[in-house]
Amino acid sequence: MLRHRDRMSNYRNIIKGVRERDAQSQMMFYDLFIRPVYRSAYAIAGNESEAEEIAQDTMLKVFARPDLLHDDAGAMERVMRRIASNAAIDAVRRRKDLFVPCDDIPDCEDMENGDAAHDFSVEEIKDGMDALPDCYRNILLLRLFENMSFADVAAMLNVNPSTARVQYVRGIARLKDILIKKKSYVER
Question: How many angstroms separate the CA atoms of 15 and 141, rounded?
Answer without folding.
Answer: 30
